[in-house]
Amino acid sequence: VVGDVLGAPRGAPAVTVEVALGDRAYPIHIGPGLLGRAGELVRAALPKAGRAFVVSDETVAGLYLEPLAATLEAAGLAWTGHIVPAGEASKSVGRLEALLDAMLGFGLERGTPVIALGGGVVGDLAGFAAAVALRGVPLVQIPTTLLSQVDSSVGGKTAVNSRHGKNLIGAFHQPRLVLADTDTLDSLPPRELLAGYAETAKYGLIGDAGFWDWLEANGAALLAGDARGRAEAIAVSCRAKAAVVAADEREAGQRALLNLGHTFGHALEAETGYGAALLHGEAVAIGMVMAFDLSHRIGLCPGQDVARVRRHLEAVGLPVRPDPARSWDIDRLMGHMARDKKVEDGRVTFVVADGIGKAHLKRDVPAAAVRETLAAALS
Ligand code: NAD
Ligand code: MG
Asked: Is 312 annotated as ligand-binding?
């Protein structure tokens, strides 16, 4: 639904995408100026709430906590905030425990919303706390990174990390409202914006060749700052994710398509320690090129499509192969893939493609072909 239903104050009109989950359906509002209207929008979604518990990280709180607080207060919502350090390390059981303590100390009630203001780290941590505190309190996502606006804030996956691996302690807990204020992307470091772009492009590669064409024409401009293009790309991405989540909320099948590029990507991240050396979106960009290369090797995808994927991601500035300055070991990478959370009966399910926009799941990919893809990328 495109229109000025929210009466967006400036710039492009806000867009609303609905996640159709029956009585747990919720809206994703996308557009400029939404942070300044958070109070009234939270009130509209949760009319009985009198208070709110805000979770953010140090960087995002420094930029956006004051304006959020002002609009909550203007809407008559009392609030308190809990700020964690920025970065993946905050998705820990220790941080979770401290957060739950603060929430319960605040006197959280079953109807008190937890508002996650930040990127995927804050969203996943606050989301999981909201899932387990009092067996579940309402969650509002205010994602401030491109990655969280197109991916992590939508769909209800929440988690913290274990020393045994990433996202291993979590729950499905759908938000009641998502506010993707595109203005917040103006302060995002370019590298983080680009990493989010990889997840955006993923939706084109999975099931929307027309969107991929559009990104080839408009991607560079939206990365450079074109606000309308950003809102458009976020809306298309959220519509795609919302459709998949509505059809397969708990990843019994189709939702696994969203893992395009992630099996290879996670192996690279595991080797680089999930840190600044290789951001998740960067690993996904490389992984998507590898998934298309693999699809070509096993006779599914035409070579021109592999070249197109590589060319566009490279053109916007994403990495398309593992850093050649590092030493990589194919056996170790194969080992990481075999330990992926998505492995069933010891068999890795790959997301492969018959071409751009034609992804599907495949369980019996020969290991030799996977090795060839890795070897080619590392040569
Ligand atoms: P992030 O939350 O760490 O944010 C990246 C960096 O940008 C941080 O330093 C943050 O402080 C800063 N930042 C955030 N918004 C900003 C803004 N507007 N201006 C300036 N700086 C800003 O990382 P992310 O990429 O948003 O999310 C990654 C996390 O999301 C990972 O932990 C991943 O596992 C998770 N994730 C979850 C899902 C899901 O479905 N739940 C999906 C994808 C990813
Ligand atoms: Mg991802």
From this structure: no
